[in-house]
């Protein structure tokens, strides 16, 4: 089957940032995203900030150009202030029109 | 005074809280399912709103206008006094001082409920419009402190509209303000039908509060280990600041014409620190403020202090302000 290579941006962040991040992803050109709650431990053994609520993992599949912009945006806005992880995964999708 | 303290410490609410702390300290596997905790908090806030609204329907404008004005004044004073104390006596940074001040400027609804139960138990029936004052005190303090923090620490501030939206659409505000409006509109006849379930003096409400306090104890117990991290200044701050704010609230409340019960509750509100509305707002606006400081202070120091000893002291102060000794 024909598939198209795209990038999946994966963000693991504090729950207070969820709505703000989703709005920003939209602005940067993502057509949608999936959000799941996460448990786990980080480099500081436990969640660095103790606010109640699970961390969120936000995934969005976008073009390489948008992926680049997203990574630049989040590293500038969030890395120094929040518990925040962002990485890119190469994916092959079957319906490229869905992803912008 | 000792007798009042003893009565309060042996109340089911206080002991449920202590049991929660003990359960966490001995590492019991007991925990309250999140859904039950959230369900109970919805029930408690919604009852508070509805009952307050039903009582508000009986209040006249002239009765409520002075207490409401004093409440707003307290909402403006407490974040500033907390900020100045932390910044200039405690030598904390801008973000930490303002972040903690936002918690002390806002109000803890559970402390309010505990105070309400206490004064009713003492036979000092408070004014029916007290929940209205609670909603007035909820947001100004957070905004004032966040504004100070954003301006002075140069934090990248978010649009005010976004922040206002978060504070005014939060669970506490929707249930309290919504409940007040619904309770106000339904009229006495309809209220009487649902009163047995929502009566904040009733057995169901107080029973639910006891279960809720178990969870509050668990939450506070989980933070006991952090007490070492916050240091002696903040430990003292977490108990002295509520006393100052509580005395101010009870005194100003009396001047505004509130009864002993009402003035005690206004004192408890002024003394309390928010731990539901304030933490996410502070985290978003002042990310450099250390969450361990503000969460430990609000949950593990000031909340237990108020529930166990503070409220009886504000009661005593309110009685003295009324000349009743």
Structure in words:
The complex is a heterodimer of chains A (100) and B (325). By secondary structure, chain A is α+β, with helices and mostly antiparallel strands. Chain A is built from 2 helices and 4 strands; from the N terminus they run E-H-E-E-H-E. Chain A is globular, with a radius of gyration of 14 Å. The two termini of chain A are 20 Å apart. Chain B has 325 residues and is mainly α. Chain B is built from 15 helices and no strands. Chain B has helices at residues 2-9, 12-25, 34-56, 61-89, 94-105, 109-121, 130-138, 140-153, 160-169, 171-198, 203-222, 227-255, 260-271, 278-285, 291-321. Chain B is globular and about 55 Å long. The mean pLDDT of chain B is 90. The chains are: A alpha+beta (100), B mainly alpha (325). The A-B interface holds A 14, 16-17, 20, 49-52, 81-82 and B 223, 279-280, 283-284, 287-288, 291-292, 295.
Write the layout of secondary structure elements.
The complex is a heterodimer of chains A (100) and B (325).
Chain A: E1 4-13, H1 18-28, E2 34-38, E3 55-62, H2 64-77, E4 84-93
Antiparallel strand pairs in A: 1-3, 1-4, 2-3
Chain B: H1 2-9, H2 12-25, H3 34-56, H4 61-89, H5 94-105, H6 109-121, H7 130-138, H8 140-153, H9 160-169, H10 171-198, H11 203-222, H12 227-255, H13 260-271, H14 278-285, H15 291-321
């Amino acid at each position: 089957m024909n598939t198209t290579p795209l990038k999946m941006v994966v963000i693991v962040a504090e729950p207070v940032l969820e709505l703000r991040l989703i709005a920003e992803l939209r602005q940067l050109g993502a057509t949608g995203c999936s959000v799941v709650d996460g448990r786990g431990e980080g480099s500081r053994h436990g969640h660095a900030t103790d606010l109640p609520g699970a961390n969120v993992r936000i995934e969005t599949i976008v073009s390489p150009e948008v992926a680049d912009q997203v990574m630049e945006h989040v590293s500038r806005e969030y890395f120094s202030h929040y518990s925040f992880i962002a990485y890119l995964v190469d994916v092959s999708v079957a319906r490229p029109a869905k992803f912008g | 005074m000792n007798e009042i303290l003893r009565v309060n410490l042996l109340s089911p609410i206080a002991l449920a809280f202590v049991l929660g702390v003990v359960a966490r300290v001995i590492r019991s596997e007991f925990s309250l399912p999140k859904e039950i905790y959230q369900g109970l908090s919805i029930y408690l806030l919604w009852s508070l709103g509805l009952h307050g609204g039903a009582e508000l329907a009986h209040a006249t404008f002239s009765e409520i206008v002075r207490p409401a004005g004093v409440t707003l004044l307290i909402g403006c004073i407490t974040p500033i006094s907390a900020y100045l104390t932390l910044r200039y006596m405690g030598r904390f940074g801008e973000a930490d001082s303002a972040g903690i001040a936002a918690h002390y400027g806002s109000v803890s609804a559970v402390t309010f409920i505990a105070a309400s139960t206490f004064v009713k138990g003492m036979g000092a029936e408070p004014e029916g419009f007290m929940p209205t004052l609670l909603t007035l005190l909820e947001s100004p303090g957070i905004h004032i402190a966040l504004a100070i923090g954003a301006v002075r620490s140069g934090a990248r501030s978010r649009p005010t509209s976004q922040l206002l939206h978060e504070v005014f659409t939060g669970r506490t505000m929707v249930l309290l303000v919504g409940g007040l409006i619904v309770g106000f509109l339904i009229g006495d006849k309809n209220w009487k039908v649902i009163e047995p379930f929502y009566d904040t003096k009733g057995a169901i409400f107080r029973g639910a509060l006891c279960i809720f306090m178990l969870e509050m104890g668990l939450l506070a117990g989980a933070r006991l280990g952090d007490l070492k991290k916050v240091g002696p200044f903040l430990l003292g701050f977490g108990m002295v600041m509520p006393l100052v704010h509580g005395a101010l609230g009870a005194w100003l409340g009396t001047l505004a014409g509130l009864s002993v019960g009402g003035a005690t509750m206004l004192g408890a509100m002024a003394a309390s620190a928010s731990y539901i509305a304030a933490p996410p707002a502070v985290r978003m606006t002042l990310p450099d403020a250390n969450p361990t400081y503000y969460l430990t202070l609000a949950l593990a120091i000031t909340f237990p202090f108020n529930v166990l000893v503070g409220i009886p002291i504000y009661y005593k102060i309110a009685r003295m302000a009324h000349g009743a000794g």
